[in-house]
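On to our target:
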Amino acid sequence: MRIIGLLTLLIPGIIGAIGIKLMRDSVFLIAQFPFAYLGDSAYVYVLQGVVGLALAMGGIGFVAGYVFYRDKKRGKVSERYQKK
C-alpha cells in the first residue's frame, strides 16, 4: 500500500520538475524536444514557458493537495479547515 502512495506522489512530482525545467529553458532560450520542431521564433519559447508553468503548477498543486488531504484526515490542520 505504501508503494502506491509513493507512486502517487512521485509521478506528479516528476511532472512538476519537468515543468520547472521547461520554464528555465525558455528563459535561457533553449527549445526542448516537442517545441524544438516548431521553429526558432519567440512564440516557441513563450509556448514552452506557458506549458512549463502549467505542468509545474499542476504537479506541485497535486502534491500539496495530497498532503493537505492526508493531514486533514488525521486532524493535523488548523481548526478552520477541520470538518464541522
